[in-house]
Design brief:
11 strands, Rossmann fold, 7-stranded mixed sheet, S-adenosyl-L-methionine-dependent methyltransferases, about 240 residues, 2 domains, alpha/beta
Length: about 240
């Protein structure tokens, strides 16, 4: 099976650094609404484990159920956990996606960052319904709607670049509309020594970009209140 995240896993934390402060700020809005007494915190598409680690650091009482189907990303996540033996009894990492994993009857909260666009409208409705069923009263989930808010062509743009020693790591993205709320993304990951390209890996995927109005309506239909966090792309879904 081809792993679409194999190209980015190794340098993911480096390339994600420009957005990490905003993600952490959004997580801090979620923190007071986490209910570890109700069940584990669900981290869907846990990636390299940044958000899983945040939960484990934030609450000594919290347990985390992390779902990450990408072998490459899961390897980074498990390496992060291996560096903290005190976490191993509090976190379970399942190599499954949202619909393949057996979810607990109750969860104490959920994190779905960089994830919602992987679901088509029918799948997204099912995800929201599952969250609504499993969250405790006034429990919450954190999600994001990745830009652009509505499907439109995106010219080749350098989204991130960072330097480690003598080498630079860079990611370039471009997208074309693919019908409805779909964009077809082409991501190029480069490592460079000056102007010399050492590695160049390309990943393509289709991502869904529902509008905020669509999210509000879909959330309300399963008794979830969607609250936008300032002017950002982050949203809290709270069980009414």
């Amino acid at each position: 099976m081809t792993d679409p995240y194999a190209a980015t896993a190794g340098a993911y934390d480096l390339l994600n650094a420009p957005w990490r402060a905003a993600q952490t700020e959004a997580l801090e809005h979620l923190a007071p609404r986490l209910r570890p007494d109700a069940g584990p915190i669900l981290d869907v598409g846990a990636g390299s484990g940044l958000n899983t680690a945040w939960v484990l650091e934030e609450s000594a009482a919290a347990r985390v159920l992390a779902l990450e189907p990408s072998p490459a990303m899961r390897a980074v996540l498990l390496s992060r956990i291996a560096a903290r033996p005190d976490w191993t009894a509090r976190v379970t990492v399942r190599p499954e996606d949202f619909f393949s994993a057996t979810l607990p009857h109750r969860i104490g909260g959920a994190i779905l960052l960089g994830v919602l666009g992987h679901f088509d409208p029918g799948e997204r409705a099912a995800v929201l319904a599952e969250l609504g069923d499993r969250l405790p009263h006034d429990g919450a989930a954190l999600i994001d709607l990745q830009p652009p808010e509505r499907p439109e062509a995106v010219a080749a743009t350098t989204f991130a670049r960072t330097r480690v020693g003598d080498l630079e790591y860079r990611v370039i993205g471009e997208a074309t509309p693919d019908g409805g709320e779909r964009l077809r993304w082409r991501m190029t990951y480069l490592s460079l020594d000056g102007e010399r390209v050492l590695t160049e890996e390309v990943a393509e995927h289709v991502y869904h970009h529902p509008s905020p109005e669509t999210l509000l309506a879909e959330a309300a239909s399963v008794w979830l209140h969607a609250e936008r966090l300032g002017d950002s792309s982050y949203w809290l879904l709270r069980r009414a």
